[in-house]
Write the structure tokens for this entry.
Amino acid sequence: MIGQAQRIAELKNLEGKKRDESKNIYAFSSGKGGTGKTFVSLNLAYSLSLKGRKVLVIDLDPNLANMDIMLDIKPTSTINEFYKGRSLLKEVITKRSDYLHFIFGDSGRADFQRLKDDTIAYLFMQLSKISNNYDYIFLDTGAGASEDVVKILANADFSVFVTTPEPTSIMDAYVMIKLLCVNSVDSEKLVIVNKCADESEGRQAFQNLNSASYHFLREKLNCLGTIRYDNAVSRSIINQKLFIENNDDSLVTTNFFKLIKNLDEYVHVANINHYGSDLLS
Ligand SMILES: Nc1ncnc2c1ncn2[C@@H]1O[C@H](COP(=O)(O)OP(=O)(O)OP(=O)(O)O)[C@@H](O)[C@H]1O
Ligand SMILES: [Mg+2]
């Protein structure tokens, strides 16, 4: 059991300190629910792990956590043990393979919690202690533009907006981006367009979002790629199977492998401080 006093002492210790490790924390959000944040972050993480990248995925949806269900894993501990101060973050990790680790949420809760500011600060402090163990850390947030989602995005190194080509979804992603601007969050902003009929539809959707964002907010976005709509995605979720693991020949799988190539290139470019590039080729 970790006492409140120790938490406060650790938080005080963190004051004035900046993480000195490289940037590797990506927060996935969308505004509109159901765009595919969880599906995309899971399968992106799995694709990266196949290429030898070490990835940690954390289910940060405090109300409707469902990653464990999508993977058909019954975790022995969840992030709730951490929130309650009973465990350190590293103690609630579930290892699916050497390269793919998870921290699951508590699925099936009905008490609609919000993450408090000091819980989010403590989470990122603990993350900074383990982030060097990973190439990528993905934070999957819940639907909506709540204050805690904005705080999570504000603390992450990169914001990844998962949108679909629907105008309502584009508008919600725009609102999320505007919220970050209003709150002076200057994390780098990446976009994935999911559920596309084809690549050109996804490109057009990105252009629309990027134009609005640049025109009204002077904020340039980076497109990581597009993912096709495929009925097999829903079947994989019904069967509680990781899509990429079971659909080698799907265009969606090809999309994910192109996406990780773009991501690796983006990280390389970001590291040498060139911002605002569209890596969609
Ligand atoms: N590329 C795709 N093709 C077809 N269906 C998809 C695709 N991506 C996601 N879906 C479907 O969209 C639904 C929502 O996906 P998911 O749960 O990942 O969204 P989410 O953004 O995490 O939702 P929430 O906002 O509730 O957390 C799933 O039922 C899945 O079947
Ligand atoms: Mg989700």
